Each structure stands twice: as C-alpha cells, then as structure tokens.
Amino acid sequence: MAGKKRKDKPAPPPQHRAALDDDDSLISSKLSSKILKEAFNQQKEILQEAEEENPTPFSAVSVDPSVASDSDAEDVDEFDGFSETQSLYDGGEVEIDEEDEKVLAAFMSAKSGPQPTLADIIVQRIKEKEAEVTTERPLPKLDNSIIDLYKGVGKLLSRYTNGKIPKAFKHIPSIELWEDVLYLTEPENWSPNAMYQATKIFSSNLSAKKVQRFYSLVLLPRVREDIRKNKRLHFALYQALKKSLYKPAAFFKGVLLPLCQSGTCSLREAVIIGSIIQKVSIPPLHSSAALMKLAELEYCGTTSYFIKLFLDKKYALPYRVIDTIVEHFMRFLEDTRIMPVIWHQSLLAFVQRYKNELNKEQKDNLHRLTQYQKHHLVTPEIRRELKNSRNRGEKEDDLMSIDILCWFVCDYIISQVVTVFP
C-alpha cells in the first residue's frame, strides 16, 4: 500500500558483520568473474570518455601539506585533483646543505642494491615457474580477458588527473592474486594522482600485512625515484605518504624501516619523509616499536635524523626501548669515524627527554662516550643534562632531600671556615 511505511531491514548479526568487515575476505571465482565482466564494460566507456575529454596534466608545483585536506572520508569517485591554492606551497621541497649531504653520504652502505619493486618480485616469480621468458615484460598466467582489462586500467592510470577510478581497480584488494593483477597495471607508470588514489584504496581495504607489501614494493620505490629525479617530492606523492600512515605498523614496516635498511637513504629523503612523521599524530606504541627497531639497525647517517624525530615527540617510552637506545649510542664508543652533527643532536635530544629514566651505570657509560665522541657545542650540553638529573627509580623528593642535605653540609663547612678565620 502507498501509505504503508517501509520497514527498515534488521541489522545483520555480529558474526555476519565481522565476516563482512574482514580485510582478508576473498570474492568467489564465480562472483569475481561477473564483477570483472561488468568492470570491463565500464572500463571501455571510461576510456572513451577520457580520450574525448583529454584533460590537462597535473602540475608538479610546490604545495604545503598543512593546507591540504586530510579527510579519509573523501570518496575516490569525487576526487577533483589538488587546488591552485595548494600549489602555492610545497611539503615535498626542502633546502639541503651540500656539506651536510656529503658528511652523511660517508655513512651510506656501498654494498646495498636498488630498492626492489613489485615488478621485480613478479618477474622473479614468473621466471622461477618458466625456464625461459621471451617477452620484455613477462605476464602472469591469468585469463586473457583479465590481462587485457587491467592493461587498459594501467593505461588510464598513467594519465589520470582527477575523476573516477575504474571499478576494476577498486576490486583488486579482494582478488586472491592481487599482486599479479596489480603488476599488470604497471604501477611504475602511474601518474602521481593515481598513486595517491591507489594508496587511499589499498590502505583502507587491504590487511596491514598486505598493504605493507604495497608500500614497500610500489609506493616507496616511486617516492624515492621522484625525489632522486626532481630533488623534491610531487605533492600528490607527498599526500600518498600521509595517507599511508592510516596503518602505522604497515607504514613503518613498508616505508621507514626498508628505507633505513637500504643503507642509501639520502638526507633529502630523510627530511621529506621525516616531515610527515613530524606532522602526523602516531600512536605511542607504534612509535616506540619503530624507535627500537631503528636503534637496532646497522647505522646509516640519516638513521639519527629519524631517531631524533621520534625522541622529539616526547612519548613515554618503556625501559626496554630506552635501554636499546643507550646500547645504540654505546656502539660508537670505539668508532674512529667523526660522527655527523645530527648524531650528537640525537644523543642530546635523548638525554634531555629521558635523563631521569637512565640508571647510574648507563649515565656513566654515556659520560665515557662523550670523552671519545665530541662536538664543541653539543657535548657540553649532553654532560650538563646528565649531571643535573636523578637516576631511574629515584623520586624527585629523594633528589631534593639530597640537595637540602648538601646545602646544610656546605653551610656547616662555611660556618666552620668563618670561625677558624675570623
């Protein structure tokens, strides 16, 4: 009846809702086939529209991330590109002192190879299965219609500036062989705006473990290449990095740690990527874990820069993390190299923030370290901070009691001196 109110559907039971929200759930082959067929038809229409419109390319102008919208609720289908106002600033452009760059370059690893990409992994996987690979870009064993579909998606993404993202691309996170399918789209050729959209989609729809692989094999190599080529980072790629922090654990395991482990992280890369860590709020537990991992890595000059960034956040750190950081610095006790200024600054930041959480033995060791590793401006400050602090476990009242006792003793001695020498 016309006047009858429509009843709302009852909410699904909790177990069913959990199943719907599961990041790792996969679409059945039958349903996947229907989706891909429908997506293929839609893709044809989108490609035709794109050819007719021929939109102007995105300008790689300087933009400040602080003025950019950081809403995760933004719909990928409503993406209009980045505004002209944003193009007046740049979060991905920094001034680097050449002398500092040379000093830190001395601490880079000479043995490290290039950053592995998704293409490297997939090609290696195909080569393991086939004795000979004849084509220039080997193709995974998938249905020809799927290969054609996602090759078409890749062509569209290579010139994408704004507007709709193909539905076939949005379904990639639900496909079992998602890496192989993603490889077909040639991520290395995506436009910066397409990379931003892809990062939003994958960070929202993949599990932390899977999105970590996307970050390390697709996003990080692209970001590093852009910085190397242009001496700055395209604003859309900078925004993609910010979006990648939607899952902090995946960001640290897929971006920050591989970058430092490579042994080839430049000062420019550290400053640009570090600015995101500075600006974005990160859960303390994730930051503590990242800090501990950084302290355990083989040293690269820019590692000190990232360590200082986390220390400056002033989070309450577990004793285990503090002990690991002390051990990190003590590794340089007998190092004959002249440490860069950033190393001394990171040590100063550490003792300033956590001097009262160090035990007496650790302070003695750090005092000894400053005898061997010195900086004419920073080292005196480090020693002063260590001297004017209480030990781990001591209360402030205990320290005050000691000060008061010392005052009384000094006062008594002075009075005796005055008595002897009237």
Question: What is the topological layout?
Answer:
Elements: H1 14-21, H2 29-53, H3 98-105, H4 118-129, H5 144-158, H6 167-170, H7 178-184, H8 192-205, H9 208-230, H10 235-244, H11 248-261, H12 267-279, H13 284-296, H14 303-311, H15 319-330, H16 341-354, H17 360-372, H18 378-387, H19 396-420
First CA to last CA: what distance?
113 Å
Shape: elongated
- Low-pLDDT runs of 5+ residues are 1-5, 13-26, 53-74, 410-422
Q: What is the N-to-C order of secondary-structure elements (H for helix, E for strand)?
A: HHHHHHHHHHHHHHHHHHH
Radius of gyration: 28 Å
Mean pLDDT: 77
**Number of beta strands:** 0
Beta-strand percent range: under 5%
Sheet with the most strands, sense and barrel status: none
Family: Belongs to the bystin family.
Keywords: Nucleus, Ribosome biogenesis
Biased composition (Low complexity): 57-70
GO molecular function, one term: snoRNA binding
Could you provide a short overview of the structure?
The chain is mainly α. It has helices at 14-21, 29-53, 98-105, 118-129, 144-158, 167-170, 178-184, 192-205, 208-230, 235-244, 248-261, 267-279, 284-296, 303-311, 319-330, 341-354, 360-372, 378-387, 396-420. It folds into two domains: 67-280, no CATH class; 282-391, Serine Threonine Protein Phosphatase 5, Tetratricopeptide repeat (Alpha Horseshoe), CATH 1.25.40.
